[in-house]
Design a protein that fits this description.
It is elongated, with a radius of gyration of 19 Å. The protein has 38 residues and is an all-alpha fold. It starts with 6 loop residues before the first helix and ends in a 21-residue tail after the last helix.
């Protein structure tokens, strides 16, 4: 078990493990539901 503080170290570990180093993209925000406008 280890605590990795720097982003550079985290990226290196993830790359070594074959995992994604970029964050997931977020969907754009949606407006309120139609029923909320009543």
């Amino acid at each position: 078990m280890a605590y990795v503080k720097g982003a550079r170290g985290v990226r290196a570990i993830l790359k070594h493990l074959g995992l994604a180093t970029a964050g997931a993209r977020r969907a754009p925000a949606r407006g309120p539901h139609q029923a909320a406008r009543c």
